[in-house]
Specification:
five-stranded parallel beta sheet, about 220 residues, 9 strands, about 35% helix, globular, alpha/beta
Length: about 220
Amino acid sequence: MRVAMHQSQYLPWPPYFKKIAAVDRFVLMDSVQFQKNGVQNRNQVRNKQGAFWLTIPVSGKLEDHIADKRIADGSWASKHLKSLQAAYGRAPHWAEHQAALEALYQHSYATLGEANEAFIRFLLDVLAIDTPLVTLSSLGVAGAKSELVLNACKALDADCYVSGHGAADYLDQAAFDAAGIRIEFMASVPPVYPQGHADFIPGLSMIDMLMHQDPDAIRAYLED
């Protein structure tokens, strides 16, 4: 079984979903420490002026886990929906996703982990990615960094762990070898596609690609 995992994020970029599509099981790492100024509670989209951040406001301590990070202001959802409609209301695929997005943003979320998972599952559904998603908190494993990843792989009976190249420096290759789990590295390659503007801005949320590309083009990227 091929397993990948990544920290829970808000509206992740396309390579996040490319990795999910490449494995048999994906672990949403919700019970890890929240990173300030990261992309766990924010991501970028664009309008004709350029890229801008959509940020879920959070409160609490820096050491809080993503799953437990409280959302500080309930007005974020209506603001984000209005921003997306203003940015993509005339995009080719806005109309087909509008109702589902409105329903997502009308739901009440108490924690960042809850909100992130809802939006990730929405994107998995519309992208037709059927890889089962499990939360790290549901596996009941402990450890830090490489040990935590290895224990999660063991809990899922994985024989292959698919990792980003950024983890190469901290993964304990010998421990994985001893457990009979090979490590396979996968590059994070963002797609290039028409965005409806003269200039292309890389590294945006999957939402941007979803609004501008048809399902066949997205599927070709995910499966390449």
